[in-house]
Specification:
This protein is of the alpha+beta class. The protein contains 14 helices and 26 strands. It folds into two domains: 220 residues, Enolpyruvate transferase domain (UDP-n-acetylglucosamine1-carboxyvinyl-transferase, Chain), CATH 3.65.10.10; 210 residues, UDP-n-acetylglucosamine1-carboxyvinyl-transferase, Chain (Alpha-beta prism). The chain has a four-stranded mixed beta sheet with strand order 24-25-3-26, covered by helices on one side. The chain starts with a strand and ends in a 13-residue tail after the last strand.
Length: 451
């Protein structure tokens, strides 16, 4: 992506150019889940040997986390063409995750639980991540302490120790429920000396599939998919071959794309999907819009309606409406025939896409953790900037239904979580292309970028 720098500042980046008004048609294939793949990679560190993970998406976050695993001593190979990763954890001997890598993605903080579970101690940088919203790690740290870890902060790093090399186990109640903390505590507790219990645990499919890999490795876990998970620590785990789940957020994104940009009466088939992972709240809201929804074993047919109906939503923990789909939902509401609102109860300030949608003509007002959208306004193409992963994809959706050209800048955010998004959309009839641009160029000077 990078072609040149000035004084160490990145100048050349990728952007997507979308010509609106082209109908989505044919089919879209869902990639493996990013939010599950990263925990699966962390789980592979717990076994002395080689685990093979399939359906791992070719994403920036996956490659970044692979480097984090290598720092610890693991040998990691990724076949992007086959979406297959091998993790040989035999050489894990350096229980540290450095700031230089952890700052790039918050999921690197899973190394805290993985290294505690494998080595009995860990030194992990406090994380960075998307440029929105507080995501405190207090739950992770308090949970580790409840399991018997000694925790201290050392110049921006979390240093965790298990006395005698293994945690004792314990009980921790989450408030609020957290996917990341549930995963981290499972990583740490499966090799503890005794029993552990996680109360008010996350129930998301990402957690369940991850827990199923741990069970296949030999972990004793009960209650996956419920709000109480019981773990009986085991001394060792074994390497496994494991198949990742489809990405439910990508599935929901494609469903919204088909509802707003599909041709009424002509279904768009979304393949390699797990409809059961969507959650009742999203499916209920989606069907109320008037869009056709016909699920199969591993696919969904979505048919755009003649008129989209406005449906207000409120995000919540699973099986509530996913916060990772609320930005996309605001674009759907902008196309609906009436007014509605989106209320995010998970992250209160996740509305950085709204000022960019304003540039395209959307009529939306943010009030605290709610956005009120007046539907029926025709969007116009504009130059807009992606600020995070889900905000970025919402701008792509808006560009698909806008009049004229939309330029979505800084799509490296998209590349963190959507595998070959522009390629998939182009194959399904959308006029979209990726080009390089100079972030700091003077628009009055016509200067081509090599590459």
């Amino acid at each position: 992506m990078e072609s040149r720098t000035v004084c160490g500042i990145l100048r050349a980046m990728d952007k997507l150019i979308i010509e609106g008004g082209h109908a989505l048609s044919g089919s879209l294939s869902v990639s493996g889940s990013k939010n599950t793949a990263l925990p699966l990679m962390a789980a592979a560190l717990l076994a002395d040997g080689t685990s093979v993970l399939s359906r791992i998406p070719n994403l920036r976050d996956v490659k970044t986390f692979a480097h984090v695993l290598r720092i610890s001593g693991a040998a990691v190979q990724f076949d992007a063409a086959r979406n297959e990763m091998t993790v040989d954890a035999s050489g894990v001997n350096y229980p540290e995750a450095p700031y230089e890598l952890v700052k790039k993605m918050r999921a690197s903080f899973y190394m805290l639980g993985a290294l505690l579970g494998r080595c009995g101690h860990a030194r992990v940088s406090l994380p960075g991540g998307c440029a929105w919203g507080p995501r405190p790690v207090d739950l992770h740290l308090k949970g580790m302490e409840a399991l018997g870890a000694d925790i201290r902060l050392d110049h921006g790093y979390v240093v965790a120790e298990a006395k005698g090399g293994r945690l004792n186990g314990g009980t921790f109640r989450m408030n609020p429920s957290s996917v990341g903390a549930t995963i981290n505590l499972l990583l740490a507790s499966v090799t503890a000396r005794g029993a552990s219990r996680i109360e008010h645990a996350a129930r998301e499919p990402d957690v369940v599939v991850f827990g199923e890999m741990l069970q296949k490795m030999g972990a004793s876990i009960k209650g996956l998919g419920t709000d109480t998970i019981d773990i009986e620590g085991v001394h060792t785990l074994s390497p496994v071959n494991f198949h990742n789940a489809p990405d439910r957020i990508e599935l929901g994104t494609f469903m919204i794309a088909a509802a707003i940009a599909g041709k009424p009466g002509q279904p768009v088939r979304i393949t390699n999907a797990a409809p059961e992972h969507l959650g009742d709240a999203f499916v209920d809201a989606f069907t109320q819009t008037g869009a056709g929804y016909e699920p199969g074993d591993d696919y969904i047919d979505v048919t755009a309606p003649d008129k989209l109906l406005p449906v207000s939503i409120e995000t919540g923990v699973y099986p509530g409406f996913p916060t990772d789909l609320q930005a996309q939902w605001t674009v759907l509401l902008a196309q609906a025939s009436g007014n509605a609102r989106v209320r995010d109860t998970v992250y209160f300030d996740r509305f950085k896409h709204i000022p960019e949608l304003h540039r395209m003509g959307a009529n939306a007002i943010v009030v605290q953790n709610e956005v009120f959208i007046a539907g029926g306004n025709h969007l116009q193409g504009a130059t807009v900037m992606s600020t995070d992963l889900r905000a970025g994809v919402s701008l792509v959706l808006a560009g698909m239904v806008a009049e004229g050209e939309t330029h979505v800048l800084r799509v490296y955010h998209l590349d963190r979580g959507y595998e070959n998004l522009d390629g998939k959309l182009a194959d399904a009839g959308i006029a979209i292309r990726r080009v390089q641009y100079d972030e700091f160029a003077d628009p009055s000077i016509k200067e081509p970028i090599a590459g």
